[in-house]
Amino acid sequence: MRRIRTFRLERDSLGEREVPRGAYYGIQTLRASENFRISGLRPPRALIRATGIVKLAACRANSSLGLLEKRIAKAISEAADEVIDGRLDSEFIVDVFQAGAGTSHNMNANEVIANRAIEILGGKKGDYRLVHPNDHVNMGQSTNDTMPTALRIAAISESDRLIDALGGLEAALRAKSREFKDVIKSGRTHLQDAVPITLGQEFGSWASAVKSSIKRVERAREGLKRIGLGGTAVGTGINTHPGYRDAALRELSKAGGIKGLRKAEDPFEALSSSTDFSSFSGALRDAALDLIRIANDLRLLSSGPMTGLSEIMLPPVQPGSSIMPGKVNPVMAEMADMVGFQVIGADAAIAAATQAGQLELNVMLPVIGHNLLHSIDILSNACLAFSGRCVKGIKADSVRCRRYFEASAGLATALNTIIGYERAAEVVKESAKTGKSIKETALGKGVLTGPEWDRLFDPKRITRPAESPFPMKKRRTGR
């Protein structure tokens, strides 16, 4: 009985290897998968898609310049479209920690597209006489210009989802700001009682912080639109047609559906420097820093409920303890913190890899790409979950907030303009000593009358002084 072969033989410059018969990847991908058994992590969908877009653009550019036979170009284009659509994702098997510059990923794409194109033309996988991974799919390209371009396309495309997620978080916080606009409470600085504020003003400040993060991400994204495709190995454009760079950029814009892509002013800098990626990562880090701060503030304000501040109630989404019945924890805020920490760590890795570029190339691009796209992904998911499962369901304990407001020593600040700083400090000291409120102490000492107190500490007036002129004239500060 004849034995059915489960592999095909392929040859490269290092020799011959058996490649699984049904695989679209080839010998170089196989070697890389064996060399880099590091993390078990595979390239993300966004990078595979972007790589397909780069290969499609290069193919169309070469075809338009008469460098590729039409039938080969058509088959490569069809195969690249399948990569873009995700139909060949399982064929991208190289670990994210791999050969410098991303050569392994680039060859993985070249081999997958070549073998699928061979199949489209009616040939058998591995028959590179029909379509060659290097000569046809990689025509006019180098890993050194295709991989940075693919990462730029991937990051730009994925940032749309991040900006939408941040926008959703801003909107949720802004809605709560309006809902809580009349909830008066004590402000806190240094974690100590301070002058009054409304809960709405607190939420509004968080919404504005997220809005600023969106603007920073949008600004940093513009730097990613400087494209070095066509520079090939070191920026000179060796092995390309004189019209290739312009043609490839046009096709890249069409295939990626991204407006504003432009040729890098200096292709040498575009290949050797990765600071556009570190700048974009910095914007992600800053967004993460504000996310952490907001999440921590919500955790603090919801602490208790009986022994903490408990000014707000976060929506319960799951039981909080395996031993304490009825306990509910701020799990969505805790998740947001952890995602923020991961983004900060990823940014540190990107910074280290960015400065590790040497001479005409930064070979550390794979780790930059992995961390950058991972940060975009988890930050997007975190913002969506945090706004939907936490922020939108927050409720205020307006009674407790007002009680803290009335008990706060920060109220004495408003007395400065009436009785002076020294006498106001005496009111605070006596209040702390006797346990009486600032109001009771001030009225007891004859500092203010009841009606005067009510006018002075009207919540709207005291939290919006610019909108309401101070209603009282200054008194003498003598005893």
Give an overview in words.
The chain has helices spanning 27-35, 45-64, 70-85, 103-120, 133-137, 143-179, 199-223, 244-256, 267-272, 275-301, 331-355, 365-389, 398-407, 412-419, 421-434, 438-444, 450-456, 459-463; strands at 7-12, 15-20, 184-189, 192-198, 226-227, 262-263, 312-313, 395-396. With 479 residues, it is mainly alpha-helical. Helix 2 (45-64) crosses helix 6, helix 3 crosses helix 4 (103-120) and helix 6 (143-179) packs antiparallel against helix 7 (199-223).
Q: What kind of oligomer do you see? A: single chain
Named CATH architecture of the largest domain: Up-down Bundle
Strand order of the largest sheet: 1-2
In CATH terms, the superfamily of the largest domain is Fumarase/aspartase (Central domain)
The tally of structural domains comes to 3
Share of helix, binned: 55-70%
Tell me the overall shape: elongated
CATH class of the largest domain: Mainly Alpha
- Mean pLDDT score, rounded? 93
Number of helices: 18
From the helix content, strand content and strand pairing, which structural class follows? mainly alpha
What descriptive keywords fit this protein?
479 residues, mainly alpha, Fumarase C, Chain B, domain 1, Fumarase C, Chain A, domain 2, 3 domains, two-stranded antiparallel sheet, elongated, disordered C terminus
